[in-house]
Design a protein that fits this description.
Helix content is 28%, strand content 22%. It is α+β, with helices and mostly antiparallel strands. The chain has an eleven-stranded mixed sheet, sandwiched between helices. It is globular. It starts with a strand and ends in a 7-residue tail after the last strand.
Length: 342
């Protein structure tokens, strides 16, 4: 199952129809059974009618009710100077956003959500927080985590907070923070999706045997791995970042040829193992990546690491692969750009 979304206006309806048709055919060719999307039933663009004409049927409806309090009564010491936040329209519900962070194993939630002893809260309310931490590495001096329950957590160094003048006139909400970020000349790298196995999915994963076509790769597979790299594009290799000398490397062989590789390395001194996976184009759509991700994830779990799957927001094929492998989106994570002026 995957989700499809298109940004469009009235003039682009034909283009949207063509694009959606192409995407749906590609998803079917990849072996996916269902395409699921969310749409505003009262959209003035006629989106509901477009999707129904393409064969989508309404299966459920959701209504969001929002009430904001200003300032948060239990956060008086951290109240940001500024006007009350502007009202925001309710977001259309995403299916994976029904998964709150507490359905994930504690090593994941502890790493992302537990404050460190060196941190200090600058501002916090029910949906947005800014925390300064003196122990952050230089390349992570500003990060933004947004979990699927729509809570955003900013972590930054005191130096970045000072550069943004956060101590003496804070933004009132996330929009205000991002405006201040832009005025400070600080640029972001671009958010990645974060996927993990939930507690329930992890139990099912551990009970499965590995496919006979899958095995760990060693130095003895150097020639097969070199041939695999020669058959892949530079773009795919850069995106997947699979390496034979990583902490764990697994491969799928088809008629004696290495056709799909996944590799992992421990991430950020945390109990997480960051993984990448790449399948050669002629062998895609056969479920190799799904089986391989699950096999290498069992390897990581047996050694006390939670598998972590990251991909860019617009990499729809990678998102579909993560979902197919049984992973659930935890949220998105952005980081300061290496080229940022700050």
């Amino acid at each position: 199952m995957t989700a499809v979304g298109v940004r469009r206006d009235a003039r682009g309806q034909g283009l949207a129809r063509t694009m959606l048709t192409h995407v749906l055919r590609a998803l079917r060719a990849d072996g996916l059974d269902n395409a699921v999307l969310d749409v505003d039933a009262e959209s003035p663009t006629g989106a509901l009618g477009l999707y129904q004409n393409l064969g989508f049927t309404i299966t459920d409806r959701a209504v969001s009710l929002v009430k904001r309090f200003w300032p948060p009564p239990d956060q008086a010491r951290h109240t940001i100077i500024g006007p009350p936040p502007a009202a925001h329209p309710p977001h259309p519900p995403d299916h994976d956003e029904q998964k709150a962070p507490d359905v994930f194993p504690s090593p994941i939630t502890d790493f992302w959500l537990t404050p460190s002893p060196t941190s200090r809260v600058l501002y916090s309310d029910d949906v947005f927080s800014v925390t300064a931490d003196t122990a952050l590495d230089e390349d992570e001096r500003l990060t933004i985590l947004t979990t699927t329950d729509r809570k955003t957590r900013v972590l930054l160094t005191p130096a970045v907070a000072e550069a943004m003048s956060l101590e003496d006139g804070q933004p009132a909400d996330e929009a205000g923070f991002r405006q201040r970020l832009e005025k400070s000349g600080i640029s972001l790298h671009g958010a990645d999706n974060l996927f993990y196995f939930t507690e329930e999915a992890r139990e099912a994963l551990l009970g499965e045997p590995d496919d006979p076509s899958i095995r760990p790769l060693t130095e003895g597979d150097a020639q097969a791995f070199e041939q695999f790299e020669e058959a892949a594009s530079e773009h795919d290799l850069d995106d997947a970042s699979v390496e034979l000398d990583h902490w764990a490397v697994y491969g799928v062989f088809d008629d004696g040829r290495l056709v799909c590789v996944a590799s992992m390395y421990p991430w950020d001194d945390a109990p997480l193992a960051d993984l990448g996976v790449l399948t050669l184009p002629p062998y895609r759509g056969k479920g190799h990546a799904r089986r391989l991700v699950r096999a290498i994830s069992r390897h990581a779990l047996a050694r006390g690491h939670e598998p972590q799957y990251r991909c860019q927001l617009n990499n729809h094929a990678s998102v579909a692969a993560a979902t197919s492998a049984g992973l659930t989106r935890f949220g998105t994570w952005d980081i300061i750009s290496p080229d940022s002026a700050m």
